[in-house]
Design brief:
There is one protein chain. The protein has 323 residues and is an alpha/beta fold. The chain has one domain: NADP-dependent oxidoreductase domain (TIM Barrel, Alpha-Beta Barrel). The chain is built from ten helices and twelve strands. β10, α6 and β11 form a beta-alpha-beta unit. The longest helix has 21 residues. It starts with a strand and ends in an 11-residue tail after the last helix. The relative contact order is 0.14. The structure holds NADP nicotinamide-adenine-dinucleotide phosphate (NAP). NADP nicotinamide-adenine-dinucleotide phosphate (NAP) binds next to α9.
């Protein structure tokens, strides 16, 4: 597996990480834990050393799962987790909370669940409008000084926030949504990350499964599936967006690759400091996705892909609250 380095002094990670969110939440009924533990260890056997989780996935269960799966190989992997939500006793996320005392408490709890003495990459999951980012960066800087955290990250932060945070505590990685159908960070954020030497960890690089071509109809999605309420998966938008997939399928065929591989290879080809973290709960799809690391897209193919997406356009906002 080829590797990439996160930020200027961050860890070297497999060019494709493994997003673990769907193993306990979001995309319908999660599979059995034992099966997911096997899958996480299998991913490591296949060359993956970068695993993504968050306190809020599950909540808590996802970190516990990762902690159990990775305990035997802790020193061979890079674990990224996230703080920044207030979670109520029923396990619901009830808004942001990046107050310093909360960050410190989450760090301790995450360390316990992850069965480790350090978090390799600790992201603020969402910017908290009530807490200045300098205070957040300063709190993580203290955790780094204490040896509990190795690197600082932000998720879905804007340019101003990234600059201000980076001035207090160098940011190693920004985790934001980036894929063929989600390109809003290209104009301002990607150039800024390049200037500051910050990596992009691209979440939902398969468009939450859509870009693989596997989702043909909204009725495929179970009632527990987050995508059920997602603007891009509503029947009309899905029909429009699926017409784009037909074009991408033809290009994938030209490459002798699958649509998922084409989509991931496209993300990898954008910058050598971008690390996509596709999620899957299936070993067969993991193997397929990892195959993208060996797929080279020529400038001509990249241009064809870009043209297909730009000309066709995407219908639907990224999140339900952006309807
Ligand atoms: N920072 C944030 O706010 C944020 C937000 C969302 C996600 N994330 C992180 O990013 C990770 C990845 O994002 P994501 O899971 O939302 O989206 P994704 O990686 O774009 O897509 C995952 C979905 O695609 C399916 N899939 C994966 N490989 C496939 C293949 N080869 N063929 C067909 N279907 C395939 C998976 O289903 P199966 O499981 O059935 O294979 C799953 O439903 C998450 O796990 C999480 O760690 C972060």
């Amino acid at each position: 597996m080829i590797t990439r380095t996160l930020g200027t002094d961050g860890p070297t990670v497999s060019a494709l990480g493994l997003g673990c969110m769907g193993m306990t939440a979001s995309y319908g009924t999660p599979p059995a834990s034992a099966e997911m533990i096997r899958l996480i260890r299998h991913a490591h056997d296949q060359g993956v050393n970068f695993f993504d989780t968050a306190e809020v996935y599950g909540p808590y269960r996802n970190e516990e799962l990762l902690g159990e799966a990775l305990a035997p190989i802790r020193d061979k992997v890079v674990i990224a987790t996230k703080f920044g939500f207030q979670i109520d006793t029923a396990g619901r996320s009830i808004g942001t909370n990046s107050r310093p005392e909360h960050i410190r408490a989450v760090c301790e709890a995450s360390l316990r669940r992850l069965r480790t003495d350090r978090i390799d990459l600790f992201y603020q999951h969402r910017v908290d409008p009530d807490v200045p980012i300098e205070e957040v960066a300063g709190t993580v800087a203290d955790l780094i000084a204490a040896g509990k955290v190795a690197h600082f990250g932000l998720s879905e932060a804007g340019a101003g926030t990234i600059r201000r945070a980076h001035a207090v505590q160098p940011v190693t990685a920004l985790q934001s949504e980036y894929s063929l159908w989600t390109r809003h960070i290209e104009a301002e954020i990607l150039p800024l990350l390049e200037t500051l030497g910050i990596a992009l960890v691209a979440f939902s690089p398969l468009g939450r499964g859509f870009l693989s071509g596997a989702i043909t109809d909204a009725t495929q999605l179970g009632t527990q599936d987050f995508r059920k309420n997602h603007p891009r998966f509503q029947p009309e938008a899905l029909a429009h967006n699926r017409a784009l997939l037909a074009q991408l399928a033809t290009l994938a065929q030209e490459l002798g690759a699958t649509q998922a591989q084409l989509s991931l290879a496209w993300v990898l080809a954008q910058k050598p400091w971008i690390v996509p973290i596709p999620g899957t709960t299936k070993a067969s799809r993991l193997a397929e996705n990892l195959g993208a690391a060996n797929l080279r897209l020529s400038p001509d193919m990249l241009a064809k892909i870009d043209r297909a997406v730009t000309e066709h356009g995407v219908q639907g906002a990224r999140y339900p609250d952006q309807l």
